[in-house]
Write a structure and sequence with these properties.
Blueprint lengths: L1 H17 L29 H10 L9 H8 L4 E6 L7 E11 L2 E7 L6 E7 L7 E2 L7
Antiparallel strand pairs: 1-2, 2-3, 3-4, 4-5
């Protein structure tokens, strides 16, 4: 009887060896790349259409837009991070969004901590796009 119980416990394990789980689907496009501190995960850079939406959407942004307004124009950010002061007492300083159009083309947006409205925007590596707003913490 003891051998029968042991045999019944091993049968499910043997069946798993013959039928391995399916492999996870691989993303299309170039291999995954870590883009460093501006990105919180290893991921592909924006496909061409998304890159165009990001670059063409930025000039449509205006200081004072809500985070929902910005997402409606630009789509979801590649990175959304809350900002805090380094000094004690630690206080919330607002949100930062990063949109990554390519490895060298990034748009950074900063939102007011009280009203959650766009107060500063800047592009990195994208010629012709001007900064939006003023220094963080000054827009109202």
């Amino acid at each position: 009887m003891k051998h029968l119980v042991l045999l019944l416990c091993l049968v499910p394990l043997v069946g798993c060896a013959n039928n391995p789980p399916p492999a996870a689907p691989q993303p299309a496009g170039p291999p995954l790349t870590d883009v460093g501190p501006l990105h919180d995960r290893a991921a592909d850079f924006a496909p061409t259409l998304r890159a165009r939406i990001i670059i063409r959407g930025y000039p449509l942004l205006e200081v004072g837009m809500t985070r929902a307004d910005v997402r409606a124009i630009m789509g979801s950010p590649d990175l959304a991070a809350p900002l805090y002061t380094k000094q004690q007492p630690v206080t919330f300083r607002g949100w930062a969004y990063r949109y990554i159009a390519s490895e060298s083309e990034v748009i950074s947006l900063y939102f007011d901590p009280v009203d959650n409205r766009l107060q500063l925007g800047m592009s990195h590596g994208i010629p012709g796009l001007k900064p939006l707003g003023g220094q963080p913490g000054t827009a109202r």
